[in-house]
Amino acid sequence: MARNIKIAVMPGDGIGPEIVNQAIKVLNAIGKKYDTNFEYKEVLMGGAAIDATGTPLPKETVDACLESDAVLLGAVGGPKWDNLPGNQRPEAGLLGIRKELGVFANLRPAVLFPQLKSASNLKPEVLGDGLDIMIVRELIGGLYFGEKKRVTLENGEEKAWDTMVYQTSEIERIARVSFDIARKRNKKLTLVDKSNVLESSRLWKEVVYKIAEEYTDVELNQMYVDNVAMQLIRWPKQFDVMVTENTFGDIISDEASMLTGSLGNLPSASLGDGKIGLYEPIHGSAPDIAGQDIANPIGTIMSAAMMLRYSFDMDDAADEIESAISKVLDKGYRTADIMQEGMTKVGCEKIGDLIASEI
Ligand code: IPM
Ligand code: MG
User: Fold this and answer.
1) Has 176 been labeled as part of a binding site?
2) Is the CB of 282 under 6 A from ligand 1?
3) Which residues bind Mg(2+) (predicted)?
4) Is 103 exposed, middle or buried (0-12, 13-18, 19+ CB in 10 A)?
């Protein structure tokens, strides 16, 4: 009998619906081939949820996610909702669902498809035979979730603050995930922090080095985040697995994505202790190009591949998606963001069809 898998789908805003549709196409092709029935339940989150229900993360959405086997998400946000108070913005829905699912470990692999070498901003000699970095971003703590407040002072000035706060157990668990990943790769882990200035970073450093004693086979080094921002451009090959605080991870993963040619290429998997993973591309909702069928769905399709790998132990199917993407690139098809001379420019729908047809 076919295996049944329940996926909660949050298309979200902007280009979200277009890119998620392509991932579903590809999953359906996989389902046919691997005798698996993917059962999708579409739920509202972000701006779409605000418009329909008045809140970015309705309770029905949370319930549907908790009843699913995994969650697939497009992107959220847009200028339409930019003036709402912080806790009512579309992004609050995204942070809320990450928290509800307890997905503290956000895996963001930056892998360069060899076919896209010339789409990268780096010189070919810096990229060499490719690039394969895994950024592990802590996802439900730190600056994003610490106390934040805004007050009006007596002199009429506004004052606002956010707090970067972590406790030992939160750092321990993300450190273990990172060491485990490093162990399965090249046994190299870089801790990215700002321990020359921030107390929370000093705690991170202490805790991560303590956990390192359990992983003597993994080589650990530490680097300040400003230096990392520079080193990623200078010599990205020095990195293998990187682990870092929520905000630092947000920033350096966008940076790393450009090394692979486009922000549109990068997938992510968010995992916790529970069994429900959240899968989403690392980019935003790109409202400027929404609805024009020009978005790049590769990051979302690769996120679906990560879902198969991490949530459902379907490694062969995940490999197959990655090689389907590779074949389509080999044949010269490109979306606008990764377009190069001599290639064939195609839209979001079309590249989704092409990838699905390789399966
Ligand atoms: C990301 C995004 C989100 C984040 C935004 C949309 C809230 O930039 O997933 O990297 O900052 O986490
Ligand atoms: Mg980001």
Assistant:
1) no
2) yes
3) 226, 250, 254
4) buried
Phi and psi at residue 28, in whole multiples of 5°? -65, -40
Fold type of domain 1-103+273-359: Isopropylmalate Dehydrogenase (3.40.718)
Q: How many CB atoms lie within 10 A of CB 248?
A: 27
pTM (2 d.p.): 0.95
Ligand 1 in reach of 281 Cβ (< 6 A): no
10-residue stretch averages of pLDDT, the chain, 359 residues long: 95 98 98 97 98 97 98 97 95 97 97 90 90 97 97 98 98 98 97 98 98 98 98 97 98 93 94 94 96 97 97 97 97 96 97 98
Same fold, 1-103+273-359 and 132-258: yes
From 102, 39, 93, 98, select the one nearest 68 (Cα to Cα).
39
Q: Is 24 annotated as a binding residue?
A: no
CA–centroid distance, 213 to ligand 1, in Å, is 32
Fold entry, domain 132-258: Isopropylmalate Dehydrogenase (3.40.718)
For the chain, the structural domain boundaries read 1-103+273-359, 132-258
Ligand 2 centroid distance, CA of 284 (Å): 7
